[in-house]
Design goal:
Layout (H helix, E strand, L loop, with lengths): L5 H27 L27
Length: 59
């Protein structure tokens, strides 16, 4: 009976782990992508003043 090739088994585990990680990252990117078109709050503070910001005196 031939001895087990541990290096091959380790490489296969590493490749499977890498593929799983990449698939997870692609899923996260795909989930994030539709909301990229919308501007998130706080993205451009000069665009709209904050609701709780004091208004300038008009004197």
């Amino acid at each position: 009976m031939p001895k087990p090739n541990y290096a091959f088994q380790k490489r296969q585990r590493e490749l499977a782990k890498k593929q799983k990680k990449e698939a997870k990252q692609r899923a996260k990117d795909a989930e994030k992508q539709p909301s990229e078109g919308a501007t998130p709050e706080g993205d451009d503070p000069a665009a709209e003043p904050a609701a709780d910001a004091p208004k300038p005196a008009s004197e």
